[in-house]
Amino acid sequence: MNNYLEISPEVQAALAEGKPVVALESTIISHGMPYPQNVETAMNVEQIVRQNGAVPATIAIIGGKLKAGLSADEIEYLGKKGYAVTKASRRDLPVLVARGEDGATTVATTMIIAAMAGIKVFATGGIGGVHRGAEVTMDISADLEELARTPVLVVCAGAKSILDLGLTLEYLETKGVPVIGYGTEELPAFYTRKSGFGVDYRLDTPEEVAAAFRAKLEMDLGGGMLVTNPIPEQYSMDPDVINKAIDEAVAEANAQGIRGKQTTPFLLAKIKDITGGDSLASNIRLVYNNAALAAKVAGQL
Ligand code: PSU
Ligand code: MN
Q1: Is the CB–ligand 1 distance for residue 126 below 6 Å?
Q2: Which of 120, 160, 270, 272 is the catalytic position?
């Protein structure tokens, strides 16, 4: 615990009573979706976590405080402020906190704050990874390094092929992060259920997932675990349509010389522009699906 951390009373009570808690990120709110769908989705996600027997803890930095558990007003604030909220990864924490500023937490930072609060399970949409062309740019998301060091289980829908999925899997293997396919042997690619890459292990129930993560924690191996949960069939996108949009977005980013922390938000926004509302609708559905699974796993832990 430290002076910067502020756990909401509800989340604090749940943790004290040993009730299941699920962390949720805020970059997806401020940078991942337009207002007001972002706020609506964030509120629905919390509801889904509750319906599946856990307490939601949406995580963000507000006024320099590391918050675990936000009020509806705080979620509305982050959603409305949108891109004006700093996207906060591990390296951004010191200055944001010292200056008393706001930050939308990425997967990496959400894991950090969840771990500080004692929360073990986290649901999101997609994680950052090794970008295409990283052999030249060295653009590798801090999310991967965080998975290597911080003991939080992350439920996602795989990774978008804005990334080099093969290199992302290699990196996770090197760092000792287990990549689990929930009910699948194949790594899902966010909008689609298939990527052409295999996962390390297929597990089929929340019990099995919880047992593996419990073993990891008890052996004190360090680092997290990645559970990749395929988007439900009825919401998945046509791979040709989405892959074409992704290729176009990557080409545009290269042409404009987009770098650093701008790369991922730029690509996500471009994909949304190209595919219209279709990708947003899929995105919302897969987040709901992940929230439900994370709540069930937290219940088993
Ligand atoms: N990928 C997605 N959706 C997202 C993100 C990534 O498909 O919303 C966000 C997450 O918050 C993730 C962050 O942690 O972007 C990674 O950014 P970067 O690649 O700059 O590390
Ligand atoms: Mn990057």
Answers
A1: yes
A2: 160
Residue 290 in contact with ligand 1 by CB distance below 6 A = no
Active site (annotated) includes residue 25 = yes
Closest listed ligand to the CA of 104: 1
Residues with CB in 5 Å of ion ligand 2: 139
Residue 252 annotated to the active site: no
CB of 141 closer than 6 angstroms to any ligand 1 atom:
yes
pLDDT tens digits, one per residue of 70-110:
999 999 999 999 999 999 999 999 999 999 999 999 999 99
Is this prediction's pTM over 0.70? yes
**What is the chain's Cα-based Rg?**
18
